[in-house]
Design a protein that fits this description.
- The chain is mostly beta strands.
- The chain has one domain.
- The chain is 0% helix and 69% strand.
- The protein contains no helices and seven strands.
- The strands form two sheets. It has a four-stranded antiparallel sheet with strand order 2-1-4-5, with no helix packed on it. Strands 3-7-6 form a three-stranded antiparallel sheet, with no helix packed on it.
- Strand 4 and strand 5 form a beta hairpin.
- The mean pLDDT is 94.
């Protein structure tokens, strides 16, 4: 069974026992994820709407460092900033 879910404004195609990284969702490891909107589900070629997806938080992680660098030539001006985006690793437990 495959489902298309919407978490934190982004859509993902998921299957049972799949792990994925989504934008940060509040909670600790082992907590159930609330507020998963199921847009579409497919089982054996039959589409359905209104199914439920259960997922749990595996870990809270940070992404790779993204560097923003600005410079003006011959002026001695340069600025370097970086940030790491926070992600939540979730595991889809079941699609019902």
């Amino acid at each position: 069974m495959i489902a298309v879910i919407k978490v934190a404004g982004q859509q993902y195609k998921v299957e049972k026992d799949q792990t994925l990284y989504v934008p940060r969702v509040e909670g600790k490891a082992g907590d159930k994820v609330e507020g998963i909107e199921v847009l579409l589900a497919s089982a054996d070629g039959k589409l359905s709407v209104g199914t439920k997806v259960a997922a749990e938080i595996v870990d809270q992680v940070k992404g790779d460092t993204v560097i923003a660098y600005k410079q003006k030539r011959r002026k001695g001006f340069h600025k370097k900033k970086g940030h790491r985006t926070a992600y939540t690793k979730i595991k889809v437990i079941s699609i019902a």
